[in-house]
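Lab meeting, action items carried over

1. Structure of the two-component assembly. Owner: GW. Status: complete.
Input record:
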Amino acid sequence: MSSNLTVGMGEICVVRGAGNVLTALGLGSCIGVCLYDPLARVAGMVHVVLPKSQADKPGDLPGKFADTAIPAIVQQMVNMGASASRLKAAFAGGAQLFQFGVNNSLDVGARNSEAVVEALKQMGIPLVARDVGGSAGRTLRLISDNGLVVVRVIGGNERDLAVLGNILASSGVAA
Amino acid sequence: MSAQPEYTFSEEQFDALREIANIGMGKASSALADLLGTTILISVPQAVCIPINHLSDVLRDPEAVTAGIYLQVTGDVPGHATFIFEVNSAHRLAGMLLGLTEVQLDEVSASALMEVGNIMLSAYLTATSDFTGLQLLPSPPVMAIDMGCAILSAVIANMQNLDDFAVTIATDIYDPEGLISGTFIFLPEPGGIQKILTAIGMG
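Predicted assembly:
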Protein backbone atom coordinates (compact mmCIF):
# COMPACT_ATOMS: atom_id res chain seq x y z
CA MET A 1 0.00 0.00 0.00
CA SER A 2 1.46 3.34 -0.94
CA SER A 3 0.60 6.67 0.58
CA ASN A 4 1.58 10.30 0.79
CA LEU A 5 1.40 11.45 4.38
CA THR A 6 1.79 14.91 5.86
CA VAL A 7 3.47 14.99 9.24
CA GLY A 8 1.99 17.84 11.30
CA MET A 9 3.46 19.50 14.37
CA GLY A 10 4.22 17.00 17.10
CA GLU A 11 3.19 14.10 14.88
CA ILE A 12 5.03 10.81 14.33
CA CYS A 13 4.46 8.91 11.07
CA VAL A 14 5.89 5.45 10.44
CA VAL A 15 5.34 3.44 7.24
CA ARG A 16 6.58 0.11 5.88
CA GLY A 17 7.29 -0.76 2.27
CA ALA A 18 8.10 1.13 -0.90
CA GLY A 19 5.97 3.80 -2.51
CA ASN A 20 5.36 5.98 0.54
CA VAL A 21 6.28 9.61 0.89
CA LEU A 22 6.36 11.38 4.27
CA THR A 23 6.26 15.17 4.17
CA ALA A 24 6.71 17.89 6.78
CA LEU A 25 5.55 21.19 5.28
CA GLY A 26 7.14 24.50 6.18
CA LEU A 27 9.43 23.64 9.05
CA GLY A 28 10.27 26.93 10.75
CA SER A 29 12.04 26.58 14.07
CA CYS A 30 10.62 23.03 14.13
CA ILE A 31 12.70 20.07 13.02
CA GLY A 32 11.69 17.17 10.81
CA VAL A 33 13.67 14.06 11.73
CA CYS A 34 13.83 11.18 9.22
CA LEU A 35 14.75 7.66 10.26
CA TYR A 36 15.11 4.70 7.92
CA ASP A 37 15.78 0.97 8.07
CA PRO A 38 16.53 -0.15 4.48
CA LEU A 39 16.37 -3.88 5.19
CA ALA A 40 12.91 -3.81 6.73
CA ARG A 41 12.02 -0.79 4.57
CA VAL A 42 10.54 1.00 7.53
CA ALA A 43 10.58 4.77 7.24
CA GLY A 44 9.66 7.26 9.92
CA MET A 45 9.39 10.99 10.32
CA VAL A 46 8.68 13.10 13.38
CA HIS A 47 7.92 16.84 13.46
CA VAL A 48 9.64 18.13 16.60
CA VAL A 49 8.48 21.52 17.93
CA LEU A 50 10.50 22.09 21.11
CA PRO A 51 13.73 20.74 22.60
CA LYS A 52 12.63 19.46 26.00
CA SER A 53 9.47 17.93 27.39
CA GLN A 54 7.88 19.38 30.50
CA ALA A 55 8.20 16.68 33.12
CA ASP A 56 5.01 17.67 34.93
CA LYS A 57 2.79 17.12 31.89
CA PRO A 58 2.67 13.40 31.19
CA GLY A 59 -0.24 13.51 28.73
CA ASP A 60 1.68 15.25 25.96
CA LEU A 61 2.21 13.97 22.44
CA PRO A 62 5.75 12.55 22.59
CA GLY A 63 6.52 13.88 19.09
CA LYS A 64 6.43 17.52 20.22
CA PHE A 65 9.71 17.39 22.11
CA ALA A 66 13.11 16.23 20.86
CA ASP A 67 13.93 14.32 24.03
CA THR A 68 10.73 12.23 23.91
CA ALA A 69 10.25 12.18 20.12
CA ILE A 70 13.32 10.14 19.19
CA PRO A 71 12.73 7.25 21.64
CA ALA A 72 9.02 7.23 20.68
CA ILE A 73 9.59 7.05 16.92
CA VAL A 74 12.27 4.38 17.31
CA GLN A 75 9.82 2.31 19.36
CA GLN A 76 7.10 2.70 16.70
CA MET A 77 9.54 1.72 13.96
CA VAL A 78 10.68 -1.35 15.90
CA ASN A 79 7.01 -2.28 16.34
CA MET A 80 6.70 -2.11 12.55
CA GLY A 81 9.61 -4.52 12.07
CA ALA A 82 12.63 -2.21 11.99
CA SER A 83 15.82 -2.91 13.90
CA ALA A 84 17.04 -0.04 16.06
CA SER A 85 20.64 -0.94 15.21
CA ARG A 86 20.04 -0.50 11.47
CA LEU A 87 18.44 2.93 11.71
CA LYS A 88 20.09 5.98 10.15
CA ALA A 89 18.93 9.54 10.59
CA ALA A 90 18.84 12.85 8.77
CA PHE A 91 17.06 16.01 9.81
CA ALA A 92 16.23 19.51 8.66
CA GLY A 93 14.72 22.69 10.08
CA GLY A 94 15.65 24.75 13.10
CA ALA A 95 15.61 28.11 11.34
CA GLN A 96 15.23 31.50 12.99
CA LEU A 97 12.37 32.95 10.94
CA PHE A 98 11.67 36.33 12.44
CA GLN A 99 14.44 38.52 11.05
CA PHE A 100 12.76 41.92 11.12
CA GLY A 101 12.09 43.83 14.30
CA VAL A 102 13.05 43.28 17.88
CA ASN A 103 13.76 39.63 18.39
CA ASN A 104 14.41 38.93 22.01
CA SER A 105 13.16 35.37 21.97
CA LEU A 106 15.70 32.63 22.42
CA ASP A 107 16.72 30.84 19.27
CA VAL A 108 14.41 27.82 19.58
CA GLY A 109 15.60 26.49 16.22
CA ALA A 110 19.22 26.14 17.32
CA ARG A 111 18.20 24.57 20.62
CA ASN A 112 15.93 22.13 18.78
CA SER A 113 18.80 21.13 16.53
CA GLU A 114 21.14 20.49 19.48
CA ALA A 115 18.46 18.53 21.29
CA VAL A 116 17.82 16.26 18.29
CA VAL A 117 21.56 15.57 17.90
CA GLU A 118 21.74 14.70 21.60
CA ALA A 119 18.65 12.47 21.49
CA LEU A 120 19.98 10.55 18.45
CA LYS A 121 23.34 10.11 20.15
CA GLN A 122 21.67 8.69 23.25
CA MET A 123 19.83 6.14 21.11
CA GLY A 124 23.06 5.33 19.23
CA ILE A 125 21.58 6.28 15.84
CA PRO A 126 24.08 7.58 13.27
CA LEU A 127 23.31 11.03 11.91
CA VAL A 128 24.02 11.01 8.19
CA ALA A 129 23.13 14.57 7.23
CA ARG A 130 21.39 17.65 8.48
CA ASP A 131 20.29 20.95 7.01
CA VAL A 132 19.60 23.40 9.82
CA GLY A 133 19.68 27.03 10.84
CA GLY A 134 19.42 30.10 8.65
CA SER A 135 16.27 32.14 8.35
CA ALA A 136 14.20 30.21 5.80
CA GLY A 137 11.50 27.63 6.37
CA ARG A 138 11.99 24.20 4.83
CA THR A 139 9.77 21.48 3.44
CA LEU A 140 11.17 18.00 4.06
CA ARG A 141 10.30 14.74 2.29
CA LEU A 142 11.32 11.15 3.00
CA ILE A 143 10.85 8.60 0.19
CA SER A 144 10.33 5.12 1.61
CA ASP A 145 11.75 3.28 -1.45
CA ASN A 146 15.37 4.01 -0.58
CA GLY A 147 15.35 6.48 2.32
CA LEU A 148 15.92 9.47 0.06
CA VAL A 149 15.62 12.71 2.05
CA VAL A 150 14.75 15.84 0.05
CA VAL A 151 14.69 19.44 1.28
CA ARG A 152 13.14 22.51 -0.33
CA VAL A 153 13.24 26.13 0.86
CA ILE A 154 10.84 28.81 -0.41
CA GLY A 155 11.74 30.08 -3.82
CA GLY A 156 14.21 27.23 -4.29
CA ASN A 157 14.31 23.81 -5.90
CA GLU A 158 14.23 20.52 -4.08
CA ARG A 159 17.65 19.15 -3.28
CA ASP A 160 18.74 15.76 -2.03
CA LEU A 161 20.01 15.84 1.53
CA ALA A 162 20.82 12.15 1.97
CA VAL A 163 19.97 8.64 0.85
CA LEU A 164 19.62 6.81 4.14
CA GLY A 165 19.22 3.45 2.37
CA ASN A 166 22.47 3.64 0.40
CA ILE A 167 24.66 4.47 3.31
CA LEU A 168 23.37 1.58 5.30
CA ALA A 169 23.79 -0.81 2.39
CA SER A 170 27.49 -0.01 2.18
CA SER A 171 28.13 -0.21 5.90
CA GLY A 172 26.18 -3.50 5.90
CA VAL A 173 28.71 -4.95 3.43
CA ALA A 174 31.61 -3.81 5.57
CA ALA A 175 30.11 -5.54 8.59
CA MET B 1 -3.71 12.96 24.94
CA SER B 2 -3.67 16.18 26.84
CA ALA B 3 -5.70 16.52 30.00
CA GLN B 4 -6.50 20.15 29.22
CA PRO B 5 -10.24 20.73 29.25
CA GLU B 6 -10.20 23.34 26.48
CA TYR B 7 -11.59 21.12 23.76
CA THR B 8 -14.57 20.43 25.98
CA PHE B 9 -15.87 23.98 25.62
CA SER B 10 -19.48 24.09 24.53
CA GLU B 11 -20.70 25.43 21.22
CA GLU B 12 -22.28 28.38 23.09
CA GLN B 13 -18.90 29.22 24.58
CA PHE B 14 -17.21 29.07 21.18
CA ASP B 15 -20.02 31.29 19.85
CA ALA B 16 -19.22 33.86 22.51
CA LEU B 17 -15.54 33.72 21.56
CA ARG B 18 -16.47 34.23 17.89
CA GLU B 19 -18.56 37.24 18.85
CA ILE B 20 -15.70 38.79 20.82
CA ALA B 21 -13.34 38.09 17.93
CA ASN B 22 -15.85 39.67 15.57
CA ILE B 23 -15.95 42.87 17.63
CA GLY B 24 -12.16 42.95 17.91
CA MET B 25 -11.56 42.25 14.24
CA GLY B 26 -14.18 44.85 13.31
CA LYS B 27 -12.11 47.46 15.15
CA ALA B 28 -8.86 46.11 13.70
CA SER B 29 -10.15 46.15 10.13
CA SER B 30 -11.55 49.67 10.43
CA ALA B 31 -8.19 50.80 11.83
CA LEU B 32 -6.55 49.35 8.70
CA ALA B 33 -9.24 50.87 6.47
CA ASP B 34 -8.60 54.33 8.00
CA LEU B 35 -4.89 53.90 7.47
CA LEU B 36 -5.25 52.92 3.83
CA GLY B 37 -8.31 54.95 2.92
CA THR B 38 -10.03 51.89 1.52
CA THR B 39 -12.70 49.39 2.55
CA ILE B 40 -11.55 46.33 4.47
CA LEU B 41 -13.84 43.35 5.01
CA ILE B 42 -13.58 40.49 7.47
CA SER B 43 -14.86 36.92 7.35
CA VAL B 44 -16.91 35.39 10.14
CA PRO B 45 -14.28 34.49 12.75
CA GLN B 46 -13.50 30.88 13.45
CA ALA B 47 -13.03 29.88 17.07
CA VAL B 48 -12.04 26.26 17.29
CA CYS B 49 -9.94 23.94 19.38
CA ILE B 50 -7.71 21.97 17.05
CA PRO B 51 -4.92 19.45 17.52
CA ILE B 52 -1.62 21.23 16.91
CA ASN B 53 -0.67 18.82 14.11
CA HIS B 54 -3.61 20.21 12.10
CA LEU B 55 -3.05 23.86 12.99
CA SER B 56 -1.82 24.87 9.53
CA ASP B 57 -5.24 23.85 8.17
CA VAL B 58 -6.50 27.31 9.19
CA LEU B 59 -4.45 28.70 6.30
CA ARG B 60 -5.91 28.44 2.81
CA ASP B 61 -2.53 27.50 1.33
CA PRO B 62 -0.03 26.49 4.03
CA GLU B 63 2.93 26.42 1.61
CA ALA B 64 2.26 29.79 -0.01
CA VAL B 65 4.87 32.50 0.53
CA THR B 66 3.58 35.02 3.03
CA ALA B 67 4.60 37.94 5.18
CA GLY B 68 3.94 37.06 8.81
CA ILE B 69 3.74 39.76 11.47
CA TYR B 70 3.89 38.28 14.93
CA LEU B 71 3.11 40.01 18.22
CA GLN B 72 2.96 38.57 21.69
CA VAL B 73 0.08 39.47 23.95
CA THR B 74 0.73 39.92 27.66
CA GLY B 75 -1.53 40.79 30.57
CA ASP B 76 -4.54 38.81 31.77
CA VAL B 77 -4.78 36.70 28.61
CA PRO B 78 -1.26 35.94 27.41
CA GLY B 79 -1.17 34.74 23.84
CA HIS B 80 0.24 35.00 20.38
CA ALA B 81 -1.20 37.07 17.54
CA THR B 82 -0.11 36.66 13.94
CA PHE B 83 -1.17 38.49 10.79
CA ILE B 84 -0.34 36.41 7.74
CA PHE B 85 -0.57 38.28 4.43
CA GLU B 86 -0.11 36.63 1.09
CA VAL B 87 3.19 38.06 -0.18
CA ASN B 88 1.69 40.12 -3.04
CA SER B 89 -0.78 41.62 -0.58
CA ALA B 90 2.08 42.51 1.71
CA HIS B 91 3.82 44.29 -1.16
CA ARG B 92 0.63 46.21 -1.96
CA LEU B 93 0.00 47.07 1.67
CA ALA B 94 3.52 48.40 2.12
CA GLY B 95 3.22 50.30 -1.16
CA MET B 96 -0.04 51.93 -0.11
CA LEU B 97 1.45 52.96 3.22
CA LEU B 98 4.66 54.31 1.76
CA GLY B 99 2.99 55.91 -1.25
CA LEU B 100 5.02 53.83 -3.69
CA THR B 101 3.99 51.66 -6.61
CA GLU B 102 7.02 49.35 -6.55
CA VAL B 103 8.01 48.00 -3.18
CA GLN B 104 10.88 45.78 -2.13
CA LEU B 105 10.41 43.96 1.12
CA ASP B 106 13.29 45.55 2.98
CA GLU B 107 13.76 47.12 6.42
CA VAL B 108 11.60 50.14 5.55
CA SER B 109 8.61 48.26 4.15
CA ALA B 110 8.95 45.64 6.89
CA SER B 111 8.75 48.33 9.51
CA ALA B 112 5.66 49.76 7.79
CA LEU B 113 4.03 46.32 7.79
CA MET B 114 4.94 45.72 11.41
CA GLU B 115 3.29 49.02 12.24
CA VAL B 116 0.14 47.80 10.47
CA GLY B 117 0.24 44.71 12.65
CA ASN B 118 0.74 46.87 15.72
CA ILE B 119 -2.17 49.20 14.94
CA MET B 120 -4.54 46.36 14.07
CA LEU B 121 -3.63 44.27 17.08
CA SER B 122 -3.90 47.24 19.42
CA ALA B 123 -7.42 47.92 18.09
CA TYR B 124 -8.31 44.24 18.50
CA LEU B 125 -6.96 44.06 22.03
CA THR B 126 -8.57 47.32 23.14
CA ALA B 127 -11.94 46.07 21.91
CA THR B 128 -11.45 42.78 23.73
CA SER B 129 -10.37 44.62 26.89
CA ASP B 130 -13.39 46.93 26.76
CA PHE B 131 -15.75 43.99 26.33
CA THR B 132 -14.26 41.74 29.01
CA GLY B 133 -12.67 44.16 31.48
CA LEU B 134 -9.46 42.16 31.18
CA GLN B 135 -6.09 43.70 30.43
CA LEU B 136 -4.42 42.67 27.16
CA LEU B 137 -1.22 44.35 26.00
CA PRO B 138 0.70 43.99 22.72
CA SER B 139 4.47 43.44 22.57
CA PRO B 140 6.61 44.96 19.77
CA PRO B 141 6.11 43.13 16.47
CA VAL B 142 8.52 40.92 14.55
CA MET B 143 8.18 39.90 10.93
CA ALA B 144 9.23 37.14 8.55
CA ILE B 145 8.72 36.30 4.90
CA ASP B 146 8.18 32.58 4.52
CA MET B 147 5.72 29.75 4.00
CA GLY B 148 2.58 30.40 6.05
CA CYS B 149 2.86 27.11 7.89
CA ALA B 150 6.52 27.79 8.72
CA ILE B 151 5.57 31.10 10.27
CA LEU B 152 2.78 29.47 12.23
CA SER B 153 5.10 26.76 13.51
CA ALA B 154 7.65 29.35 14.65
CA VAL B 155 4.84 31.10 16.55
CA ILE B 156 3.72 27.83 18.12
CA ALA B 157 7.28 27.14 19.26
CA ASN B 158 7.14 30.41 21.20
CA MET B 159 4.21 29.24 23.35
CA GLN B 160 5.09 28.88 26.98
CA ASN B 161 2.73 25.98 27.56
CA LEU B 162 2.27 23.95 24.46
CA ASP B 163 -0.65 21.58 24.73
CA ASP B 164 -1.65 18.99 22.15
CA PHE B 165 -4.67 21.14 21.34
CA ALA B 166 -4.78 24.87 20.79
CA VAL B 167 -7.76 27.19 20.89
CA THR B 168 -7.42 29.09 17.64
CA ILE B 169 -9.27 32.25 16.72
CA ALA B 170 -8.86 32.99 13.02
CA THR B 171 -10.35 35.63 10.73
CA ASP B 172 -9.70 36.39 7.07
CA ILE B 173 -9.29 40.04 6.10
CA TYR B 174 -9.61 41.28 2.52
CA ASP B 175 -10.66 44.23 0.41
CA PRO B 176 -13.47 44.29 -2.20
CA GLU B 177 -11.01 44.57 -5.12
CA GLY B 178 -9.18 41.45 -4.07
CA LEU B 179 -5.88 43.30 -3.73
CA ILE B 180 -5.32 42.56 -0.08
CA SER B 181 -5.86 39.20 1.52
CA GLY B 182 -4.65 37.98 4.85
CA THR B 183 -5.48 35.92 7.91
CA PHE B 184 -5.38 36.97 11.53
CA ILE B 185 -4.72 34.19 14.03
CA PHE B 186 -4.86 34.55 17.80
CA LEU B 187 -3.55 31.69 19.91
CA PRO B 188 -4.09 32.26 23.63
CA GLU B 189 -1.91 30.41 26.10
CA PRO B 190 -3.78 27.55 27.83
CA GLY B 191 -6.14 28.95 30.48
CA GLY B 192 -6.59 32.30 28.72
CA ILE B 193 -9.89 31.36 27.12
CA GLN B 194 -11.28 30.31 30.48
CA LYS B 195 -10.46 33.79 31.82
CA ILE B 196 -12.30 35.46 28.93
CA LEU B 197 -15.35 33.22 29.38
CA THR B 198 -15.40 33.80 33.13
CA ALA B 199 -15.12 37.55 32.61
CA ILE B 200 -18.24 37.59 30.45
CA GLY B 201 -20.19 35.27 32.74
CA MET B 202 -19.98 32.19 30.54
CA GLY B 203 -17.25 30.33 32.41
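2. GW to write a short summary for the group page. Key points so far: The longest helix of chain B spans residues 11-36. Chain B has a mean pLDDT of 90.
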